[in-house]
Specification:
With 213 residues, this protein is α/β, with parallel strands linked by helices. The protein has a single domain, classed as 3-Layer(aba) Sandwich (Rossmann fold). It is 55% helix and 13% strand. The chain has eight helices and five strands. The protein has a five-stranded parallel beta sheet, with helices on both faces. Helix 2 runs antiparallel to helix 3, helix 3 runs parallel beside helix 5 and helix 4 runs antiparallel to helix 5. The longest helix is centred in the middle third of the chain and has 25 residues. Bound molecules: P1-(5'-adenosyl)P5-(5'-thymidyl)pentaphosphate.
């Protein structure tokens, strides 16, 4: 039996991680096997690449290096975690995937979108999400949530991408909206400005449809 692959996308602080946890718990109560993973990351090699990408000290990183590192982390993640889990029939919940590359490196950094699509195709080697939930939120609200979250987390300042200016984050939001418009079958936009429970109800509804429940 083939599993289901669901990706969660959106600007920084949109509430993806929160919703993945809530959805995962609900699915586990239905006796489903759930794999939680994230990008960049999910494997030891990809987590090392994540450290390079998000380290705020790496200010000299050029945009092409950034794009290639995200793709490298993804290729490893797909082969070690995502593809085997789908083959085993599990439900894979992934915090960010290929659409983040289009939104951040394409719309945010200005790298050619067609080139990034090809890069993504090489990285995923045929593994595509069954459903993508795009959490749409004004960038100032998202960054505001991150600032609040960091209060009390000793030593954890904003990462290299979070430190970008509001203009960058606004372009990223537009990027996600464009992705959703171009693939309405796969991508469902969720208004992430509402309370957590209301969003969770909508997420469950959409996921049940994909699972045929
Ligand atoms: N990136 C990633 C690229 O540039 N290219 C790529 O190809 C990929 C894969 C990853 C960074 O890398 C970039 C994008 C990112 O900048 P990350 O730390 O994984 O870094 O970044 P995020 O995925 O954005 O993680 P965050 O934790 O910052 O955001 P989330 O997961 O969207 O938000 P969450 O759930 O942690 O919530 C943030 C705060 O808001 C509260 C939560 O309690 C929490 O405190 N919250 C709400 N508050 C009010 N109302 C709600 N509905 C709320 N939902 C959550």
């Amino acid at each position: 039996m083939k599993g289901i692959f669901i990706t969660f996308e959106g600007p920084d602080g949109a509430g993806k991680t929160t919703q993945i946890k809530m959805l995962g718990q609900a699915l586990e109560k239905m006796d489903k096997i759930v794999i939680y993973t994230r990008e960049p990351g999910g494997t030891s090699i990809s987590e090392e690449i994540r450290s390079l990408l998000l380290n705020p000290c790496n200010k000299e990183m050029v945009d092409r290096t950034e794009a290639l590192l995200y793709a490298a982390a993804r290729a490893q993640h797909v082969e070690e975690i995502i593809r085997p889990a789908i083959r085993k029939g599990y439900i894979v919940l992934c915090d960010r995937f290929t659409d983040s590359t289009i939104a951040y490196q394409g719309f945010g950094r200005g790298i050619d979108i067609d080139f990034l699509r090809e890069l993504n195709e090489m990285a995923v080697a045929g593994v595509f999400p069954d459903l993508t939930l795009i959490f749409d939120l004004a960038p100032d609200v998202g960054i505001g949530r991150i600032n609040e979250k960091r209060v009390g987390q000793a030593g954890e300042g904003k990462d290299r991408i979070e430190q970008e200016n509001m203009d960058f984050h606004a372009k990223v939001r537009c990027g996600f909206r464009e992705v959703a418009l171009s693939e309405p079958q796969r991508c469902k936009v969720i208004d992430a400005g509402r309370d957590k429970e209301t969003i969770h109800s909508e997420v469950i509804q959409l996921v049940k449809e994909v699972l045929g429940l």
